[in-house]
Each structure stands twice: as structure tokens, then as C-alpha cells.
Design brief:
This protein has 314 residues and is of the alpha/beta class. The protein has 2 domains: 129 residues, ATPase, nucleotide binding domain (Nucleotidyltransferase, domain 5); 169 residues, Nucleotidyltransferase, domain 5 (2-Layer Sandwich). Helices cover 39% and strands 21% of the residues. The protein has 10 helices and 13 strands. The strands form 3 sheets. It has a 5-stranded mixed β-sheet with strand order 3-2-1-4-8. Helix 9 links the parallel strand 12 and strand 13. The protein is globular and about 55 Å long.
Amino acid sequence: MYAGIDIGGTNIKAIITNREGAILAAGSERTPKTAEEINDTIIGLLRKMLEKKGSRISALQSIGIGAAGAIDGKKGIVITSPNITAWKNYPLATIIEKKTGVRVFLENDATAAVIGEWWTGHGKKFKNWVMLTLGTGIGGGAVIDNKVYTGQSGSSLEIGHLTIDYNGKPCPCGSRGCLERYASATALVELTKQKTKKHQSSLHNRMKTEAISARMVFEEANKGDALARQCLEEVGFFLGIGIAGLVNIFNPEAIIFGGGLSHAHRYLFPIAKKVVQERALPGLKDNVKYLIIKNEDKTPALGAAKVGIDSLGL
């Protein structure tokens, strides 16, 4: 058995798999604030899943972790994570390895999603494709000529931190005008809060008893709320600007989307595709396929598990 852990800004998701990618157990918890709490949550998830299989952590062959942010996979260090501020040059792999006694391998969470999709999803069909994960932030990854591109240290394609407005909104990464400040689930919530101060919406009733969320905006858009749809379409516009740049750089066969916000593709994609057609170069923007990852909730964790399997040379 092999474990895969996907640590995002909002949730930690975990799976137990075999060498063929069959999911044997799965679980998830909210992402805590402190580094130690994150470590404890990982261990707790592993124990719960393995107890259901009548087993213990020591039965695992490896643990693969996909972590949000810039990582050094060779050293097992999270260099920085804009959405998990508790990590600064944090030796996550070493700490989890000491706590479990199992070999631990670290990968960027978006790259892990690419590996998972390439292993078990739509990615098997293409030689050149890009992934965008739309969640609390925006991550990304790419397969180039049938090889996963990871960059010098394993932190390539931090697509969420492409600058789309040189004098734009400040970003937790330290820059300004980053794509994820305009086209992530976090950006959607911020935009909706601003617009509901000035315009009527069915969201007002729900906001009396619930904290506003990207899911809430999506649900109200499905019910026909004009403001909710407007907010999603505005996010789709900025997403299209980012995609146009990726199309010009990578000339991909497909762009595959993951993350919770990808569920709103019926509102995001038409606007994003229109922007790509207006801004990307002829010959590069043609025939690009737009797809949703096959098993959205578990693909990044599957990819993390695959990192562990491959690192063991199996």
C-alpha cells in the first residue's frame, strides 16, 4: 500500500492506493493554521484510513505529499506557500518521515495533480498539455513531449503568480497583480463581497446566516442569480488572460482543469475561451481542448502517491 496526501489551502485530502492506482481508502480534513497541526492532521488521516483496512502506518511502502507552494523536492522542503503561511523553508518530508517511520517524498501539489491525471485520467491521451488547478489559489503543471515538467527544484508553473496587472492587487507572495488575485476561488469571494454591497442579489439572504464561499456563488448562479453569474464571468475573463499566455508559451493540445472552482466551468469557460481567441496567437489557439480532470477530488493525492511509488523505483 502507498499513501498520497494533497495539502491545499483549504483542505487536506488523502488516499491509500496500490501500484496500479486503485483507491483502497480515502479521507479529508480542513487544513489547520499551524505547521504542527498540519502534521498531526496528516498522521490522523493516515491512521483512520489504515484502521479501516485493518492495518497500521508501518504497512505503508511510501508516503507521497503534494504541498501547495514552492518546494524543493530533493530536500523535502516547502520553501514558501502563499496560502499556508506557517511554512517557511519547512522540512515537511523529514518531519513526517520521522513521525511515521515511512519513506516520504515531496512534490508541488499542482505537479502532483498533473502526475495523477497523466497516470489515471485524460492526460494519457496527449503528449503536450497544461493543467490549471483553480482553488484557494491557482496552481499548474505541464506535460511536455510526454514528460512531466518540474523545473530546476520542482516548483515550475506557479501559474497563479503570473502578473496580469503590473500595478494590480497586492498578493501574499509579495508581488502585485498575480492571476490568482483575480481568477481563484478566493478572488471570486472577494469580488462577490464587493458587488453585493452595491447590488441586490439572492446572495444577501444566505449571507445573513452563512459565510460567503465560492460554492455559494456557484449555487446561486445555478438558480439564476444575475449578480452571481456576473461575478463568475468576470473571473472567467481574467482566467482567459492567463490561459492566453499559456497557449502562446506551450502550444498545448489540451488544458485540463482541476480544483473546486472548475465545477463552475459552464460560467467560466465560455468567457475564458472568448478571451483566448481574442488574445492568443493564430495557429496556437486553434484546436486546444478544454477538459475537467477525471477524478477531481482524488487526482492530486493519487499523483502524490505515484511520486512515492516512482521514487522507490517500483
